[in-house]
Write a structure and sequence with these properties.
Number of helices: 3
Strand content: 15-25%
Distance between the termini: 58 Å
Shape: elongated
Strand order of the largest sheet: 1-2-5-6
Number of domains: 1
Structural class: alpha+beta
Length: 172
């Protein structure tokens, strides 16, 4: 019985450590492959979560964009390379129209409200030498025709799809 009690304690401790997200081995902890900054995001064309926008909403959207860049960079960059991106403007897909009859802020998707992102980027190798760099403004004129229905109700679906496409094409 004493052995069973000790085994249960050990299992509980291991489960707690796993829940905390601690890596099982030091080799599992990989350095970040991307550094993302936002230059004066409060002045971006449209990074709002409502007609007037909130700081909390803007920070949430910036976090989604930062996480997507890190995710795709981790999957797409060749070993040893690092990506630095600085966003200088973002105009999210859709727009909020004033005085909606429902009384709720609803982002309306129309062709004229296409997503757009402006940024600079730099890819460096393991020695710090620049492999590729540039300034880009990406937009998706046909964003409403994006293939695939899964995830369309996710926050920033069209914006993140456009950004992911650019990253996958350019991080080779």
């Amino acid at each position: 019985m004493n052995t069973t009690h000790s085994t249960v304690r050990i299992l509980i401790a291991v489960t707690a450590l796993c829940a905390l997200g601690l890596p099982a081995h030091a080799k599992d902890a990989e350095p970040a492959r991307a550094t993302v900054t936002f230059e004066t995001p409060e002045k971006f064309t449209d990074l709002k979560d409502s007609v007037t926008g909130t700081d909390k909403g803007r920070e949430y959207y910036l976090k989604l964009i930062r996480n997507r860049v890190a995710e795709v960079a981790g999957q797409s960059l060749p070993a040893g390379q690092q990506l630095e991106m600085t966003f200088t403007d973002i105009d999210l897909a859709g727009d909020y129209l004033p005085a909606m009859a429902s009384g709720h802020d609803i982002r309306v998707m129309k062709d004229v409200y296409m997503p757009r992102m402006a940024f600079t980027f730099k890819i460096t190798d393991a020695d710090g030498a620049v492999v590729k760099e540039g300034t880009e403004t990406i937009r998706d004129l046909n964003y409403l025709s994006t293939v695939g229905i899964v995830g369309r109700n996710d926050a920033l679906f069209y914006d993140l799809a456009m950004l992911s496409d650019w990253l996958r094409k350019n991080l080779k």
